[in-house]
Design a protein that fits this description.
Layout lengths: L10 H30 L4 H47 L1 H14 L4 H25 L9 H25 L5 H23 L4 H29 L1
Helix pairs in contact: 1-2, 1-5, 1-6, 1-7, 2-3, 2-4, 2-5, 3-4, 5-6, 6-7
The structure holds zinc ion.
Length: 231
Amino acid sequence: MRARHHERHRTSHIGWLRAAVLGANDGIVSTASLLLGVAAAHASHTGILVAGVAGLVAGAMSMAAGEYVSVHSQADSEQAELQQERQELHTDNEGEHKELAAIYVGRGLDPALARQVAVQLMAHDALDAHARDELGITEALRARPLQAATASAASFAIGSALPLLVAVLSPASTVIALVFVTALVFLALLGGVSACVGGASVTVGALRVGFWGALAMAITAGVGALLGAAA
Ligand SMILES: [Zn+2]
C-alpha cells in the first residue's frame, strides 16, 4: 500500500496561532503597563492588584467584544454571498456550470475535463463547489464569531495573568522592577516563538516585541510617576 506522506504546512497553524500570540502579547503589555503606572503613582500593593485584575477583566471583555463584532460581520458577508450564489444556481444553472468550468480551465485543466469536473462536482454538491472554488469559502475557514471571541479573550487573559502573578508574588518595594523585567522576558519568549512558527528570525521577532513592550511600560510608568507626584 502506498505510504501517505505527511507534509506539514505552516499555513494551517498560522491563523489561530497569530491571533493567540497577539492576544497574549496585548495582555502582557497592557496589564504590565497598567501595573507599573499605578505602582509608579505610589498606590498601595492592594490598589496595584485591584487595578491589575480590573485591567485583565476589562481587556479580555473588550478583546472578546471586538473580535465577536468583526468576525460576525465577516460571517454576515459570507452568508450573504452564499445566499446570492444559491439564487444564481437556481436561476442560471447552465451559466453556473460554465463559470465553474472556466475556473478549472484557469487552473490548468483542459476545457473538456474542466466541464466534466464541473458537472460531477455540481451534481454532488453545487453550492459547496461554488463556495469553495469561486468564493473561497470552505467549512474549515468559515467565520466562527463565538469561537474567535472566546479564543481572543482567553489568550488576553492568559497574557495578563503573567505580570499580575508576578505583582501578587512580589514585595511592594520591588514590584516595579520585577514586573518590568519579567514582562520583557515573557514578551521576548512570545515574540521568538511566533517568529519561529512563522519561519522568521527568532532574534528579530523577540527584539521587536521586547522593544515595543518596554516602550509602552516605560511611558505608562512615567505618566503614573507624574500623576503620583502631582497628587
Ligand atoms: Zn457561481
